[in-house]
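Design review, sub-item: ligand-bound model
Attendees: FS, YL, KQ
YL presented the inputs for the adenosine-5'-triphosphate complex:
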Amino acid sequence: MENNGIALRKPVKILDGIPMLIICIVICIALYILGITKTFSNNTMRYLLKIFLYITMGEMWNLMSGFTGMTSLGQQVFVGIAGYSVAVFTSTFKMSMWLGLLVGAVIGVVFALLLSLILFRMRGMYFAVATWLIAEAVRLWFNSWRFVKQGAGMTIATSQIPKVRELYIYALTLCIIALVVVYILLRTKTGLGLTAMRDDADASSSVGVNIFKSKLLCYLICSLFIALAGGMFALQKGSVLPSSSFSIDWTVAMVFIVIIGGVGTMAGPILGGIVYVILSEFLAHFPGWSNIILGAIAILVIIFLPDGIIGTLQKKLNFEIFSQKRLSEPKKVKGLKEKANMA
Amino acid sequence: MGNILTFDHIDAGYGRVQILHDLSFSVEEGEVFGVIGPNGCGKTTMFNALIGLIVPNHGTITFNGHNITKMKPDARCHLGIGRTYQVPRPFEGMSVYENVLVAAVHGANHNEKTGRQVALDALKLTELYDKREIRAGELTLLDRKRLEIARALGTEPKLLLLDEVAAGLTEAEVQDVIKMVKNLKAAGYSIIWIEHVIQTMVEATDHLMCMSEGHELLIGEPRPVMDSKEVEEVYLGVEEEDEEDE
Ligand SMILES: Nc1ncnc2c1ncn2[C@@H]1O[C@H](COP(=O)(O)OP(=O)(O)OP(=O)(O)O)[C@@H](O)[C@H]1O
Ligand SMILES: [Mg+2]
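KQ shared the predicted structure:
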């Protein structure tokens, strides 16, 4: 009976392929056009660019924690480094914000490479705590570093701050690139291994998945994109401070976004990012309460929807968006067969 | 034929708890090497040390001419060691087919196109072909055990490690497993097979090792080992203890 039940289950519907691609391209083009033609108000674009940057960060944190199991609580360190890099290059050196962003990203990746030497010896809780301690140490260091004006923080040279519309375009572009990178990565050989690691790291290593290489790759990609997103957040705010640029709130936001949307799915952080920005704008009216309410929502989701909103919907309704699923029969062949059968 | 695997005075365990004590044995190329021993004597731990989930504190493991004592699990897999887990550990969120595809692509260095055929062959051999698109997390225990074997075969190993694949099966199913192991042996695999079902060990193995408290107690032809006094004592000892417990 049980076996029959399984055999009769409908196969998972995969929302992918040409129609999905067209929908995505249309949405992206529409977002570009609406931004360039000033159809969106500045306020709307400010919301949207935040959403794009948070989606980027959430997607990256998901890649690290959701797939490789490295639950970092210290990704804010890359937000801070890139923000400060932008500030130093524009204010102190009077150079372009692009150079600041680029250098910030490079320093972020090199720093991540160095950290990996220590961090990759640890697992689970130890890894999480170590990443957080490192981020705190860097924050304290910036707090007392004369060159970056210690605890007083720095402002970004106003001449270098892009208009909201420009920043909107940059953030949208970064978000699209991040999504495409994750999408393609999950479809490579490495991505197949990552999906296996997500489910059982030890078992994946015993069938030949190189855990170290996969972890390193994800950590570097994650650090790069979080640095770029962090640099753009600094441009949007116009200033950097040790206490806010290196605040653990950044990572808390990423965790929230991933949990709400669904760990280990690509669509999850997209929804999570949207929900997070809307919620936090709304909760800004209740200062002091916002973190408590966000935390309560996250706990409720963990208890009642452990797969997140997207993850639960996918399981309940038996479909997958942006699925990295490999089918045993290539799609085209299946289509032809069905047609042949019908004839 | 030469030895494909040698354990040379291995001490190993989990953290500070030492489970394997001075364990030595060799497996000949192309043979089925059976392993028995009372519960908790360290059979599964021996597999963990062999595939690299734990690293021995002392001794050397040689596989096919390579010293693999300190190698990472993925490197050992590439050399040709494929294992099944006693408690199945499928990649639950992936389909049955994808589970085996991972093994073919990462373990045997195929690309996804050539790996596909390897995976499908392994699924046919283990009678999972019709269930290939089901999520592995939805399989019954018996099918999970089959998937363990399919996944190990997907890595195209030289040495196949079977950990109690026949436990809990019906008489007829046990016969199927024996037939499968004999076929695999005929196809050229070397096999280490841990099992409590006596019948499988006598029928299908070339050599049999009985372990006791992390050490090899006796190694030899299956029948004489089974009938020996030492082995009887180890098992009797355990049974008496169990009775006292009750
Ligand atoms: N991950 C672990 N951490 C600590 N101790 C463990 C771990 N796994 C097993 N052990 C202990 O190691 C000892 C040997 O266990 P092992 O699983 O190797 O026995 P076994 O011979 O395979 O037994 P069985 O026939 O029941 O499968 C047991 O005492 C067990 O409690
Ligand atoms: Mg065992």
